[in-house]
Model the fold of this input.
Amino acid sequence: MSLDEININNINHEINITCDEIFSNNLKIFQPVNGPRVNLDTILLADWVKYRSGKNNFLEAGCASGAISLILALRFKNINITGLDIQENLIDLAKLNAANNNLDSRVKFIAGDLRDKNLLSRENYDSVIINPPYESLTRGRTSKILSRSVARLELSCSPEDVAEMSSRVLKSKGRLFAIFTSERLAIFINSMLAHKLTPKRLRPVYPSINNNSGVFLVECIKDGGEGLNLLPPLIVRDESGNYTPEILRAYEL
Done:
């Protein structure tokens, strides 16, 4: 797929599109100006994902323009990834990004609702990756831009939806990798446990040493036994306001 096959100006009539380079120009991403974009959460979640030899079938749910799927394909040469998003215009961008980065042989993108029980094959995936909306409908504010509201609010994806979908599509002992807001940690973990997804690694992320945790990274195992590894805090910025060495490493392939 090329720019000649997709008219970039027609992908989303509501917002403009930019082309941005990340990882020292190793990856070029078309993405909406006023919709879901590559940010620190994107980089942290991609860095959090672990690859186990022989476990090659990955799903990214809520993939937006496909950045995480493409980052993982660059890092792990043996995996195949399916990216799913409910917004068709973002899937068009993701397909374009896969083709332009020569990754479309291992990364495919489909439009659909993760709540659709007939869309994805049961117990088919070794790993699921997701950065779900952080805000509940009762507390979050809607945006005039639909794609921004879908990415931020639980309009089409709640922690319960994430847990049900992940448990349904993961193989036994398959892994869920996620990032979510720390103030709703209990809601997220309770949803996972209710669907046989046991948290095995959890790491809180702090914007700086003097701030409360904003988000957390978690890895859950379907049908996993007891035993949670609570990792040391991940600090984003040092006392001078610069990215810490660990954050800078996350921006490397």
In short: The first strand starts at residue 17 and ends at 22. Residues 2 and 96 are 6 Å apart (CA to CA). The chain is about 25% helix and 25% strand.
